[in-house]
Amino acid sequence: MPATVVIGAQWGDEGKGKVANLLARDADVVVRYQGGNNAGHTIVIGDEKFALSLVPSGVIYPSVTPVIGNGCVVDPGVLLEEMATLRSRGVDPDHLRLSGNAHLIMPYHRKLDAVKERYLGRNQIGTTRKGIGPAYTDKYSRQGIRVQDLFDPGIFRDKLEDALREKNQILSRVYNTLPMDIEPILDEYAGYAEALAPHVTDASLLVWTAIREGQNVVFEGAQGTLLDVDHGTYPFVTSSNPTSGGALTGTGVGPRDIDAVLGIAKAYITRVGTGPFPTELDDEIGARMVEIGGEFGTVTGRRRRCGWLDMVALRYAVRVGGITELAIMKLDVLSGFPTVRIATAYEDGGERFDDFPRQQRVLYRCTPVYEDHEGWEEDISGARSMDDLPKAARSYLERIEELAGVPVTMVSVGPDREATFLPA
Ligand code: IMP
């Protein structure tokens, strides 16, 4: 394992948290490298399930150091709330470490996210409204406030004053909404500073040292390749780089420090929010995937759009993310369909696209070229190895490997930990 990046190979919600939690059992460090509390993963403690959005996977193992890297945007109130929830369930989050270079989500970021979406109306992106985009916007326009600023009250006040001078103009004059006062924000964030102080560290040095010492490090991505701000279906994307390049810039290590890139994909494909989706099923098959797959968002509860597995997109994810192996999740959801389909190419205006089209309009207009595979009737949720799967399910996985050009090294057939197995 030594240094493995776990990335979403579709539009997010592939089951990265589950895989990262599995890998975390043998890991020393799990580091989140981008995104914020727009992500969501469910963890199981005893008989209880609960959702985490910011705390890295593996927090439940005392031997794992969970790290939030510089590439993340951190809503400190949310982080502390999640840590308190963990504590109340008997999980000690005191070993969590937070990069001083990560950017803070401020109250005006959340507000701007909501009013901008409202303003866009029909063209809205369908963001999680957690302030993610506005926080990254400030980072890149060099107006962001970083975790380390919390510990320099003079600098924090100066930066906040500068930010509010501009944001309040935008809130009131552009979006016709109420401006924000500085004092309550200063008080609120002073409280966060005190609570977070013991956790703040040089995360890049921590991760680099762990790798040098031969420890097992998991780089945990959030969202997925097609939501990447550079490589995804822009502008219907998130504001960071979920692809493996983000793991480097978002933690502060180099490409030679990475040993493997594990791409996580469902056996079909889903998306939340707006944007093009060539294999979307707007029919009873899609509705059945939603129902059987429980396809509702962990963070926002929104119904996910569902479609047949898109290998044009998955091959693209393998390419732009340098994926070395794949985990195929939720294979059990496809049980009972007489035929399962895989899109192997797109067609638009008489032209065939075997590679992901460079012109976005093609994604809206194209017709997927499907390959039909025999389905399987059996309930496969009890399978614990490839040998337990019906022949049709095995050949479906083999075809995915063939089309992706990388091996499938993990298969999941149900929500339990044991239901995720490594093919023999
Ligand atoms: P934002 O990340 O909140 O700015 O939202 C931008 C787009 O990314 C929207 O389409 C969201 O639905 C999508 N998105 C953000 N986080 C996730 C996630 O964890 N899973 C799936 N989609 C996400």
Give the low-confidence spans: none
CATH superfamily of the largest domain: Adenylosuccinate Synthetase, subunit A, domain 3
Shape, please? Answer: globular
Give the oligomeric state of the chains in this entry, treating copies of one chain as homo and distinct chains as hetero: single chain
> Strand order within the widest sheet?
9-7-5-2-10-1-11-15-19-20
What gyration radius follows from the Cα positions, in whole Å?
22 Å
Strand content: 15-25%
Number of domains: 3
CATH topology of the largest domain: Adenylosuccinate Synthetase, Chain A, domain 3
CATH architecture of the largest domain: Alpha-Beta Complex
Distance between the termini: 17 Å
Mean pLDDT: 95
Number of strands: 20
Strand count, sense and closure of the main sheet? 10 strands, mixed
Chemical compounds bound to the protein: inosinic acid
Q: Under the CATH scheme, which class of the largest domain? A: Alpha Beta
Helical segment count: 12
Helix fraction bin: 25-40%
